[in-house]
Amino acid sequence: MTTNKTDFLWWRDGVIYQIYPRSYMDTTGDGIGDLPGIISKLDYIADLGVDAIWFSPLTPSPDVDFGYDVADYRGIDKKFGTMEDFEVLLEEAHKRGLRIIMDLVLNHTSNQHPWFVEARRSKDNPYHDYYIWQDPKENGKAPNNWAAIFGGSAWEYDEQVGQYYMHLFYPEQIDVNWRNPKLYQEMMDIFRYWCDKGVDGFRLDVFNLYYKHADFPDNPKKIPPSAPFFRPWDQQKHLYDYDQPEMMPALQEIRSILDSYPERYAVGETFPEDAESAAKYAQPGHLHAAFNFEFTHCEWLARPFQSAIERYENLMGEEQWPCYVLGNHDVTRPATRYAKSEEDDDRLKVAAAMLLTMRGTPFIYYGDEIGQRDITIHKKEDVLDPIGKSFWPFFKGRDGCRAPMQWNADLNAGFSTGKPWLPVHENHTHRNVTAQADDPQSLLNFYRNLLKLRKASPALQKGDIRMLIEKPQFIIAYERKYESETFLILLNFSRFERHLEISEIGPSEVWHPVLSTHQPAALVYQAGKLTLNGNQALVLRKTV
C-alpha cells in the first residue's frame, strides 16, 4: 500500500467535483442548467476547496440518454450555451485554480451524428465502416446472441441498408468501429481538439467497451445469471463484447497524446464496474486512473468498506493511483443510502471523512456536500430516464440522483426561475447551501474543513496508507504517512459508543485531534481505551 513519492501532479494531490450540467444552475428560466449558470457558481466551487470540475457531457445531443448519445464531438449543446460560453468557463475556472474535465463518450454516437446519417446511405459509403454492421443470418435473425445493456438485443436491423448495426445501449446509441483506422484517427483527434482548447482532462465513458471480438461469436450463457436478472445482458458471460486485448494499445496511444500536453489527465469508467478492471486499465502508460465504484454498493458497516479499500489497494501496483467515489449521476445518493433521518448527517460526515482522507483521488458529486437526497418518482409516466422507462418497476431509473442543486429555500431551490426539468426535492426549504453556509456544524462546512485540511497536508494528499485493524467489526482505523507527517483516521460505523485499545493506535500523548464530527474534539481515554461516539469520525495528527 505504498506509492511512488515523485512527480505528483494536480490530479494526484487534488479532489474532483462532478457537475451534471442540466441540474446545476439555470440562468435562462428554461429549467435546464447552463454554462453561464456554472460560471456564476465558480466562486462557490473554488471556496469549497476542490481542484477540478468534471462535467457530464456538454456536447450536442438529442438527449435519448441525456448527453450520452453524442451528435457532435466538437461542439457545445445549445441548451447549455455556446462555445464562447465554454471558453469563458475555461478562462474563469483557470483564474480560480480550477481544472476542467470533459466527459468523452467514444464507444457510440447518436443516430443523429453526421457519421451515422452518412453510414446508412449505403454499404459503399465511406462512413459505413465507422460503425459495426453485420449481415443477417440465413433465417434473417441477428448475427449473434449479444444483448444490449439497456435491454433486448444488441443488434438493430436497418432496412435502408439491409444489415444489422450494433448498439450495446439503446438503438439510438450506435457503437462505432474502433477497428477502422479512419474512425480510430478521428477519435484520437478529438483528444487533441479539446486539449488545444485548454481542457485539462477527460472522463472516458465505458471505455473498455470500445473493441468487440472481430469474429462476433455468441456469448455463453451465465448460470446463474447476475443481478438484476431481468435483462438479457445479465444472462450472459461477456467474453466477446468488451475487454478485448486491442484496448490496451489504444489506451497507450491516448496516454501518449495526453502526455504531449502539460499535465493532462484521463480517468476511465469500466463496465461492469469492478475493481479488477479499474486496476488493469490504470497501469503505467495507460489511463491515469479508473473508477472504483465499490463504495457505492457497500452496506453501512465497517468491514465492507475496509474490504473494498484493501482489495483495491492489493490490486494496484506501486505506480498506480486509486480513485474513489461515494456517488455520481448513475447511482443513488449517499444521503439516500445511509442517512437514517432528514436531520441526521452523522453518517454522511463519516463517509466524507473516509472519502477525503483515503489514498487516491476523491470525486465529489454535486449536492453531496450538503446531503442532497434522491427525489422520488412515483409513476412511470413521470420518469425521464430511459432506463427507468424500460425497467419500471424493477428499476425506476436515475432521475432521483440528478435533481437540481439546492442553493436556497426560494422557489425551485434557487436553481431556476422556470419549471425545472426534474422536480426539486421538497427538503430544499431547509437543506440548501445558504442554510448550511454559516452553520459551523453543517455538512457543507465539514466538507470545507476536510478539504482545507487535505490541501494543507502532504500526508493526506500523497501519503502511504496502513490499515490498523484486521477485519474490523465497528471501527475503521488507518494511518496516512508522508515524510515526517502522520495522520490517524478513526471512523465509527456504529450508532453506539465504541472503544479502541491503546495498543492498536498508541498512547494519547502521541496524537493531537485536528478534526472531528463531534465537538469538542478531545481524546477520551479510559482504562487503556480510546472512546469514539456513535457515528464519529476523528482525524488525529502525530505530535512526536
Question: Can you describe this structure in just a few lines?
Answer:
With 544 residues, the protein is of the alpha/beta class.
Count of DSSP H/I helices? 16
Strands in their spatial order, largest beta sheet: 11-10-9-3-2-1-13-12
Shape: globular
Strand residue percentage: 15-25%
Instruction: Please tally the β strands and state the result.
Output: 21
CATH superfamily of the largest domain: Glycosidases
Distance between the termini: 23 Å
Uncertain segments are 1-6
For the largest beta-sheet, the strand count, sense and barrel status come to:
8 strands, parallel
> Rg to the nearest angstrom?
24 Å
The CATH level-2 architecture of the largest domain is identified as: Alpha-Beta Barrel
Helix/strand-derived category reads: alpha/beta
CATH topology type of the largest domain: TIM Barrel
Mean pLDDT: 94
- Quickly count the domains: 3
Helix content: 25-40%
Q: What is the CATH class designation of the largest domain?
A: Alpha Beta
Report on this model:
This protein is an alpha/beta fold and 544 residues long. The chain has 3 domains: 372 residues, TIM Barrel, CATH 3.20.20; 62 residues, Oligo-1,6-glucosidase, domain 2; 80 residues, Golgi alpha-mannosidase II (Immunoglobulin-like). Helix content is 25%, strand content 17%. It is built from 16 helices and 21 strands. It has an 8-stranded parallel β-sheet. Strands 14-15-16-21-18 form a 5-stranded antiparallel β-sheet. α4 links the parallel β2 and β3. The radius of gyration is 24 Å and the shape is globular. The protein starts with 9 loop residues before the first helix and ends with a strand. The N terminus is likely disordered.
